[in-house]
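Support case: beta-D-glucopyranose complex. Customer-provided input:
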Amino acid sequence: MKRLFTTLAVLFVGTITMATAQQANERPIYLDPDAPIEERVEDALSRMTLREKIAIIHAQSKFSAPGVPRLGISEIWCTDGPHGIRPEVMWDEWDQARWTNDSCIAYPALTCLAATWNRDCALSYGRSIGEEARFRDKDVLLGPGVNIYRTPLCGRNFEYMGEDPYLASEMVVPYVKGVQEQGVAACVKHYALNNEEQHRHTVDVSLSDRALREIYLPAFKAAVTEGGAWSLMGSYNKYRGTYACHNHRLLVEILKQEWGFDGAVISDWGGVHSTEEAIHNGLDMEFGTWTDGLREGASNAYDNYYMALPYLKLIESGEVGTEELDDKVRRVLRLTFRTAMNNDKPYGAMCSEAHSLAARQIAEEGIVLLKNHNNNLPIAPDAKRILVVGENAIKMMTVGGGSSSLKVKYECSPLDGIRNYYGDDVEVLYARGYVGDVTGDYNGVVTGQNLVDKRSPKRLIAEAVEMAREADHVIFIGGLNKSNNQDCEGTDRRNLGLPYNQDAVIEALAEVSDNLTVVFVSGNAVAMPWIDEVESVVQVWYLGSEAGNAIANVLSGEVNPSGKLPFTFGAKLEDYMAHADGAKFPNPKKVFYHDGIFVGYRSFEKREIEPLFAFGHGLSYTTFEYSNLQLSATEAVAGNRIDETILEATVTITNRGDRAGKEVVQLYISDVESSVIRPKKELKGFEKVELQPGESKTITFSLTPEALAFYNENSSSWTVENGEYRVLIGASSADIRLDKSFTLR
Ligand code: BGC
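Agent response - structure generated as follows:
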């Protein structure tokens, strides 16, 4: 059932009439790879029957749509996404097809990518995963995800890019471009407001327009208008009473009319609920609808899709016209000619050395050193015995968590990474410390690990403590995992605390060790009641195939950490505004985002709550000095264009330590006086700069009116007000080093 070879296919169609024979000789425009895409689209459209048009806009299997076999128009094949290429599944099942040549490289989760604050990492991520998708003959990669981190309980935060719309926008664009360079469409998901999982199929989200525009939409907009995304996935939830997969405001008014999106809107799997709404409200392709295959179209369950026979019937009965259908078909054809029938597409590559290297470099750059008392890290070069404690040191993390689950060619565990790094020079011991979740399978992919350990929590702690007494450095590796109610699609966490008795293990270790490092494998913030008792804390995310190597390189000092948090770590759940004042969570039915634009650091700063670790925070083994902030003018004038540079800010960064390192220099804007309430400051620029010991570099930021604007609900447009603005330069949202003002006239 794989795609037909395009040019030949047209010669082998069943009934060759005179007309089609002539066309075959002349090669129709739609088959001419050099013809402009729009001409190919119109030509193909003009040759399609009504039934062929209906067929092309819905799935024929779990992950494919049929194309037009009669015309030799290729099938479209999708794959998850977003951290690696999903193993092949059976035609009509979620279960893997048990191929033996579909193992992939797992790249770090998107939270880690966001934590690199490095646009080049996002580009290399997109290129690498795009190459694997292309090699596996996939046309649409179901990712990246850019839903905003509104609450630390959302089970799917690990697949997204954090709490800040500017950071997520800057990181999503190169990812999309990198993927699409390979002739594979990025499918940016889940549009929009899919900020909790448990009731994702029923929750109905309302919020202010300002919050929608300022917080939740910018990354999608950037992916479309700057990244040029060829497809986008509607989310499961409702927005203002209508499902997002067929929501007129989101899809037609904003995405297609305002942003000029010319790609295809793909439903999330099973996210369609109404033929009428799907027709009129901007959905282009339907995937994953549940059907029992027993009603109409028993021979092909996919005929039951909302955008299949029910749509055809409405057209045939004259109840709806074909204008909407033609628009959808055009979009699907455009997607096909950009991907499957793009003759310039590269060949792709699978599990290459370059991919492993990219995965490792992204992982290393995304690891965040949160705390490092007394320079406890890197591990002292004279350490002779290292104790590693904790389930996450050995547990495979690429299997589980929902649709992002992978079948990897290899996954280097943290313990293996540390052992490999030190070889025979250092004794690396291991103690389990706690037992979390010993299962390890997802849709037929099994880790094969036997993690069962029947010892009591008390015995496990006692063993770890005994061993810790003799160790030169103790590394606890815990956090969350990909099981239900942890970092997992379809469920949310129940609280901010660490599961499986881990707090007790850490506290017990802290009592006997002066060199305790706590490493968290997770995609979410966790509470740390013992924070003052441990020397170091490192947030390492889900790092994929190269996890252990990257972790070992950072802990040993081979690599100087340079990641910064893409979301705020609050000390307790109520500190997040989404959970303040007894707000209900999760929400089975209606939820109003009472926090409005005050998400993440915007809310912590407004409510003057000190976070455990601030947005943008991340330490290094060296120190950086910030100096000489200069603005190109003290007054600026906004011209007609919102993206025109009106002012430049330059700042000098110097490495004052004795090792090379990278620093993420962050620029925040504060509107001193405004007619509306505004966050105390907002991220509007960042650069990651690499410096040798003693080296200085000067960075220039260009400021546009866009960086000063707020969404004005009275005029339904972006407004820039005259007056004073402060330019704040810092090493995190809570560590502002330099500050200068200018006036907008
Ligand atoms: C998820 C999507 C995923 C799709 C296909 C859905 O349940 O929400 O993110 O791409 O399944 O696996």
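The longest helix spans residues 119-135.

Case will auto-close in a few days if no follow-up is received.
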